[in-house]
Amino acid sequence: MKNILIAYGSKYGATEEIARHIGQLMNKAGLHTDVLKADKKLDPSPYSAVIIGSAVYIGLWRENVTSFVKRQVSVLGNKPVWVFVSGPLGEGDPNELVEGWFFPKRVKPFIDQIQPRSIVAFGGKVDTEQLSGLERWMMKKINSPTGDYRNWEGINQWTQTIIEELMKE
After folding, report:
1. Count of domains in the chain?
2. DSSP reduced 3-state for 19
């Protein structure tokens, strides 16, 4: 049985929910999947494939994911890797809403070395009740949409594509 790692970084839990959902779908398909927060101790070596997921805020990944990718680039470069980002808000295609910032400039050289099989953006979720006063003020100031823009059907389709690829190998 293949062992899959889903390493994620999430600020308020929406990206973690996506990662856990992907993990459940993979487990149902017969792939043993660990869904773990990317941290300094996380070692992708024992896994046959890795999915990396990060929330994106103002064009930046969560720092724990950035550190994980930089630290593990040599291991990740020798495995099948897929990447998703979560965070664009508003109606429309999240891949267009990210306007090309799937990953920050300082992560790009590492992503180029890893050569993910797919990089996709999923809509994000903002629950204003979870935000600090400053964050609520900033969201209001820039007239940012709030709410849940995650497209679960799109997440399911992307995950199914990965499952099919892994089952062929």
Report:
1. 1
2. helix
Q: Which domain holds residue 122?
A: 3-168
Query: Pick from 101, 74, 162, 89: which is nearest to 126 by CA?
Result: 89
Segment 21-42, tens digit of pLDDT: 999 999 999 999 999 999 989 9
Specify whether the backbone of 23 is left (phi greater than 0), alpha (psi in -120 to 50) or beta: alpha
| Count, residues in the chain | 169
Q: Which residues of 89-121 are buried (b: 16+ CB within 10 A; e: fewer)?
A: beeeebbebbeebbbeeebeebbeebebeebbb
Does the global pTM surpass 0.90?
no
